[in-house]
Amino acid sequence: MNYETTIGLEVHVQLKTQSKMFCACPTGYGAAPNTLVCPVCLGYPGAMPVMNEEAIRLTVLTGLMIGSNINELSKFDRKSYFYPDMPKNYQISQYDRPLCLGGSVVIEVDGVEKTIGITRIHLEEDVGKSTHMARSSGVDFNRAGHPLMEIVTDPDMTSPAEAYAFLVALKQILLYIGVSDCNLEEGNMRCDVNVSMRPAGQKSLGTKAELKNLNTFKGVQHALHYEVERQSGMLTRGERVIQETRRWDPDQGITTSMRTKEDAHDYRYFPEPDLMPVVLAAAQIGALKATLPELPRTRRFRFAEQYGIPAYDAGVLSADRDIADFFEAAAGLSSNPKAVSNWIMTDVLRVLAERETTLAALPLTAAALASLVGLVDKGSINMTGAKTVFEVLIDNGGDPARIVNERGLAQVSDGGAIESLVDDAIVANPRSVEDYRNGKKAALQFLVGQVMKQSRGKANPPMVMEILMRKLEG
């Protein structure tokens, strides 16, 4: 029997705020264990929570970006949570009135687009971090109370590849609006996966398992591959799949049972008595909506159409908002957007990777890059000289035309001067001349190199090639 896979994700995203969700403790990463804590996030009796307005704003911004409906009236609830990493024995979360409902994210797998529905986005406080040793366990409460946005998808995904594509697309959107750093190593973005199998054609969903301990996108993919095989194997053998929470073990490449899966009533939700409901006026929501940037996917299509660049280039350039903004600013000042794209993809991205830095930290401006492209297009400088100018711009900034003049990098396009250099190269390299005339085309490149060397890289390469071929074949 054939089985269909159904996958839904619960993506937990730490929001980029200065303080925690319900107290003034900072949200820094890497501090000594249990130093970023206070009576509120440690759950001391009588400590009262105070809502973080910025966390509300970032969550609503996310919902608007993916087309969610924003609840003008939402509230927080207590979720019974008996585990050492939550000292209050309950978590402040949202249940029946979350901030955002609905929405969607478009993914692409093997060239086929698919829309993944969003069930809800709610806001809650993060829990502490447990570390398990051989004979003991430790809990660091620095993370406890960090604003945590949970994005719950509809069960619309049918393969590990689709789940991976969704996470990549969602991360790109979150980074575009700056709501989170989405650093997986620091736990900014974590994911739980619900997966079930059902006979092909059956309308009702199968019994699901929830997978935990997934801290990389590839880990999600690998865990799903294993779990799909495990569940389909059980069903084929006539065994019953039980609803449970399972842990992914990346070292062994398997999932193992942790506990039977809870239902909502097991958490005994009830309204948080120490917090007022969240009331958002339509004007507030409208003001936030007006600040939204273009979706990365929309920008990718527009770049290809508006600037006439290949789809691949558009995809690379639109993937990061800072890069996309930089390209658009430079392309708007240039008559050659493709050349601007080439410089960014080949040279700018290389520098960013080598120096592990950001565009904002470099003195290079969009106007300077556009000017450099213009100098090359006009023949004022050849590509060798342009590379030299680019390195100066990367290190010190400045005006490309002035750098060309100050360093004597102007391209030599005087036919007489180049012809003289060509004659010298032919006289000095008779063997290469003979090789070329005997059909060895590589010899021509050697002679071009000799001319360029004599001109200290300033000669116009197309003119050098033209004159050389005329003289050698004449």
Structure report:
By secondary structure, the protein is an alpha+beta fold. The protein has 3 domains: 3-287, no CATH class; 296-406, no CATH class; 415-473, Arc Repressor Mutant, subunit A (Orthogonal Bundle), CATH 1.10.10.410. Helices cover 40% and strands 20% of the residues. It contains 15 helices and 17 strands. The strands form 4 sheets. Strands 1, 2, 6, 7, 8, 11, 12, 13, 14 and 15 form a 10-stranded mixed sheet that branches. Strands 5-4-16 form a 3-stranded antiparallel sheet, with no helix packed on it. The chain has a two-stranded antiparallel sheet with strand order 3-17.
Rg over CA atoms, rounded to whole Å, is 30 Å
Rounded to the nearest angstrom, the distance between the terminal CA atoms is 76 Å
Number of domains: 3
From the spread of the alpha carbons, the general shape counts as: elongated
* Biggest sheet overview: 10 strands, mixed
Strand portion: 15-25%
Q: pLDDT below 50 for ≥5 consecutive residues: which ranges?
A: none
Mean pLDDT: 91
Count of β-strands: 17
Annotation field: number of helices: 15
Helix content: 40-55%
The structural class is alpha+beta
Could you give the topology of this structure?
Elements: E1 3-14, H1 53-65, E2 69-70, E3 73-74, E4 77-80, E5 90-93, E6 100-101, E7 104-109, E8 112-125, E9 129-132, E10 137-140, E11 147-153, H2 160-177, E12 189-199, E13 209-214, H3 217-236, E14 244-249, E15 254-260, E16 270-271, E17 278-279, H4 282-289, H5 296-307, H6 311-318, H7 321-332, H8 337-355, H9 366-377, H10 383-396, H11 400-406, H12 415-428, H13 430-437, H14 442-454, H15 461-473
Parallel strand pairs: 13-14
Antiparallel strand pairs: 1-11, 1-12, 2-6, 3-17, 4-5, 4-16, 6-8, 7-8, 8-11, 9-10, 12-13, 14-15
Helix pairs in contact: 2-3, 5-6, 5-7, 7-8, 7-9, 9-10, 12-14, 12-15, 13-14, 14-15
